[in-house]
Amino acid sequence: MEEVSRSTLCIIRVGMSTYYKIIAETCKIIATVLTPMYVKLPNTEGWLSITKDFEEKWQFPNCIGALDGKHMRIRKPDHGGSVFFNYKRFHSIVLMAISDAHCRFVWFSVGDGGSFSDASVFSDCSFNEKLSNDELHIPAPTQLPSSDRFSPFVFISDEIFGLEKNLMKPYNRKLLRTEREKIFNYRLSRARFTIECAFGILCSKWQLLNNALRFNLITSKYIISACLCLHNFLITSNRQNQHSNNGGEVRQPEVQNARNNRSIPVLIRHNLAEYFCNEGTVPWQRNYI
User: Fold this and answer.
1) Which DSSP symbol is given to 163?
2) Given Cys at both, which of 165, 220, 229, 253 links 34, Cβ 3.0 to 4.6 Å?
3) Rounded to an integer, what distance in angstroms lies between the CA atom of residue 230 and that of residue 136?
4) Torsion region of 178: left, alpha or beta (phi above 0 gives left; psi -120 to 50 gives alpha)
5) What are the φ/ψ torsions at residue 29 (nearest 5 degrees)?
């Protein structure tokens, strides 16, 4: 899109300014119409379906999504350029997103300046506020497969994000002390590959995202949003969705009502790490630590 040849413009019989206007208007319509259809937050049953897929495909139970951020290149804005100049030394806006087990985006936010860290962008976003206020209809904690252990449903992320009751991150790689911690990090990293893969597919399919978008900030956000919607549309169209839930009733552990206790996330991570080394072990995991 950035380097449109004269021959291309002759074929479609429009001038450069008209071409850019068409792109901007089209992407705005796509993003506005398709986002509520193809990138919408799941209800309780939807979270359970995502969890089932993560367990079957990535052997990480009670996982409801993988979280990460990506810097999307833009041209230097006319005003406030320093806000968008990131640590990689180019201008960008931050795309923050969560993927399911099939590399589809279940939530995203785009537009914060590239000078802000992924952790700060997520901390200040409306999604995190809803997560903190229990407004996302996440299911109650349940038993882990083939185990008496209980765990809440969690998102998974890399080290830069905070450790929360519903957000797990790896143990500090510089301070790994036990095999249990190394195995947990491997299992989490393996499942978190979905969001990295989702970003990779997105930018491979729509290669304009690999270059600086030559539009104003609002249009750039619409372009990125439109690409995400089409990404989900294509993946959904190419596979048969399966929705099945366990109807069994389970009791809820005390951890559900302990949001303000900062030791709770640490205990949840420890519990998952113990599970991965015992009831939830997979034959190959020790080969990757």
Assistant:
1) P
2) 229
3) 24
4) beta
5) -65, -45
Q: Which residue has the tokens 């021959």?
A: 7
Question: Distance between CA 79 and CA 76 in Å, rounded?
Answer: 8
What are φ and ψ of residue 210, in 5° steps? -80, -10
In terms of C-beta density within 10 A (0-12 exposed, 13-18 middle, 19 or more buried), how is residue 240 classed?
A: exposed
Residue 212 burial by CB count (10 A; 0-12/13-18/19+): exposed, middle or buried? middle
Look up residue 284 and give its two tokens.
């190959």
